[in-house]
């Protein structure tokens, strides 16, 4: 007598006599009509999220541009402030140079004293150059109200019309910014 094997009995797939095995349809082979189509609610949600994404991208681009403009404006303001501070520091030095030039224009019998005054005047002038401040050339130049302050007018045939013929006080500028206007006399206005 044979003993039965323990365990699960082998099950064989039942064949459908109407469909042979080769023609059995797989779920992937089913027509597209049976695939899930997004519902109108899902479609509106996708559209809403797409619009929100576009809006957020636009806001981000605007913030980036705004920050870039802020950075450029800050750099420009710092440069302007630095120029203003340099000009403010230069004003007392300019007054000292004026006084040294007056002292140098006076006759002096002590040559060593005169050389000392001259050295100090040169040193202060070099300080201005290091700050980027230069003297405005005025004598013999055409009068420019942006650079010169006319305090007097004279008739002089030696000079062309509207020309600076005398400088009472030197003017100084830093780049295009005038630190102090030159005080001048204009010939033949």
SSE blueprint and pairings:
Elements: H1 40-105, H2 111-130, E1 133-136, E2 148-154, E3 163-169, E4 171-174, E5 177-180, E6 182-187
Parallel strand pairs: 2-6
Antiparallel strand pairs: 1-4, 3-6, 4-5
Helix pairs in contact: 1-2
Précis, in short:
The chain has 189 residues and is an alpha+beta fold. 46% of the residues lie in helices and 17% in strands.
SS class: alpha+beta
Q: What count of helical segments does DSSP give?
A: 2
* Element-by-element helix/strand order: HHEEEEEE
Count of DSSP strands: 6
Mean pLDDT: 83
Strands ordered across the widest β-sheet: 1-4-5
Shape: elongated
Count of spatially separate domains? 2
Please report which band the strand proportion falls in: under 5%, 5-15%, 15-25%, 25-35%, 35-45% or over 45%: 15-25%
Largest sheet, if any? 3 strands, antiparallel
Q: Would you identify the regions where 5 or more consecutive residues have pLDDT less than 50?
A: none
**Share of helix among residues?**
40-55%
- Assembly state of the chains shown: single chain
Query: C-alpha Rg, in Å?
Result: 46 Å
Give the end-to-end Cα distance, rounded to a whole number of Å.
144 Å
Which key phrases capture this entry?
2 helices; three-stranded antiparallel beta sheet; 6 strands; 189 residues; alpha+beta; three-stranded mixed beta sheet; Nucleotide Exchange Factor Grpe, Chain A, domain 2; 2 domains
């Amino acid at each position: 007598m044979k003993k039965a094997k323990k365990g699960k009995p082998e099950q064989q797939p039942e064949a459908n006599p109407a469909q042979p095995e080769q023609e059995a349809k797989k779920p992937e082979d089913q027509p597209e009509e049976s695939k899930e189509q997004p519902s109108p609610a899902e479609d509106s949600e996708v559209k809403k999220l797409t619009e929100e994404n576009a809006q957020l991208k636009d806001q981000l681009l605007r913030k980036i541009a705004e920050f870039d403009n802020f950075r450029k404006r800050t750099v420009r303001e710092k440069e302007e402030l630095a120029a203003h501070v340099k000009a403010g520091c230069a004003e007392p030095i300019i007054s000292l140079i004026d006084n040294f030039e007056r002292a140098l224009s006076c006759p002096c019998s002590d040559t060593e004293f005169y050389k000392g005054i001259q050295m100090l005047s040169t040193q202060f002038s070099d300080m201005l150059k290091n700050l980027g401040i230069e003297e405005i050339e005025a004598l013999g130049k055409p009068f420019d109200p942006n650079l010169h302050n006319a305090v007097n007018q004279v008739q002089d045939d030696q000079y062309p019309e509207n020309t600076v013929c005398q400088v009472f006080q030197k003017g100084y500028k830093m780049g295009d910014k005038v630190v102090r206007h030159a005080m001048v006399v204009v010939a033949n206005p």
